Amino acid sequence: MKRRQLMVHSAAAMATVAALSFSAKARDEQSGETCCSDCKDCGDCRTACLACAAGCMDEPGRKECIKLCLDCADICGACDAIEARKGAMSAAMMSLCAEACERCAEECEKHQDDPCCKACAEACRACAKRCRQGATSK
Questions:
Q1: CB neighbour burial string for 32-59, b if at least 16 within 10 angstroms, e if fewer
Q2: pLDDT tens digits, one per residue of 24-43
Q3: How far apart are CA 77 and CA 111, in angstroms?
Q4: Which letter does DSSP use for residue 39 in this model?
């Protein structure tokens, strides 16, 4: 059953990546701006977090990592959507996104031997840095 769940989650993550890539490309072509240019407007971070959560499912002691990755992925998605429409809450959302990314990176850095966790931590650090910059410039 775990293998089946992993396949379902992987397929969902791949579909999400395709949709995010398409919407980000369309928005970039329209405005020339992104929220997080270092991580392609939070999309790369969200994708890395989803991949990390899927990769950690069968690993013992990774419950906190999975929870933080899923939280971070959701917050990155929300930040991306709010920033795309230049919403009134953009700066607050970028600050929250940066905090979520930093917490996720800290947890993932505990598992540096895992390539998914390592990639997630790197994506989270880049996204957090750019979101902090974006939040202070608004």
A1: eebbbebbbbbbbbbbbbbbbbbbbeee
A2: 444 444 444 444 443 476 99
A3: 24
A4: G
CB atoms within 10 A of CB 13: 18
Question: Which residues form the domain of 78?
Answer: 2-137
d(CA 118, CA 120): 5
What CATH number corresponds to the domain at position 45? 1.20.1270.360
Integer-rounded Cα radius of gyration of the chain: 15
Q: Give the integer Cα–Cα distance in Å for 126 and 65.
A: 18
Tokens for 122, please give them: 């790197």
- Give the pLDDT confidence score for residue 122 in this predicted structure: 96
Model pLDDT for residues 72-126, shown as the tens digit of each residue? 999 999 999 998 888 899 999 999 999 999 999 999 999 999 999 999 999 999 9
Structure tokens at 127: 């996204």
Angle, in degrees to the nearest 10, between helices 43-56 and 90-108: 30
User: Model-level pTM greater than 0.90?
Assistant: no
Q: How many domains does the chain have?
A: 1
Q: Which tokens in the block code for residue 59?
A: 């690993």
Tell me the one-letter amino acid at 120.
C
